[in-house]
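User: Need the bound-state model for zinc ion:
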Amino acid sequence: MTRYRGGCHCGEVEFEVEGDLTEVDECNCSICTRKAYLHWIVPPQNFRLIKGAQALAVYTFNSGVARHFFCARCGTAPYYIARSDPDKIDVNARCLDGVDIAALRIRHFDGRNWEAAMRQRANSRR
Ligand SMILES: [Zn+2]
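Assistant: Bound-state model below.
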């Protein structure tokens, strides 16, 4: 496993995450499109917030399950809690240091049709 360091743009929020980052999910839903998330979903024990809990604002909408954190100072959204995996941490791979985004394999998640996309995901992981 590799340890990555990440955070927001201004430096208020910093975290570490461990895992093998080879692929990310890109979602076409209304918020992921606007935020340009590249999703890397990890177990919470692989994630450690170093600093910045007090700097994080949260945006929720619709079902209210997803908790879209963002730095209240610089606006960056380096990680959040996803509706699809509320027991995990959804790291925005764009906010990790030293990661070559172009080298990652991108899987497409059809978040505009969320229920159907979740069924398809469950089948593909069986
Ligand atoms: Zn910031």
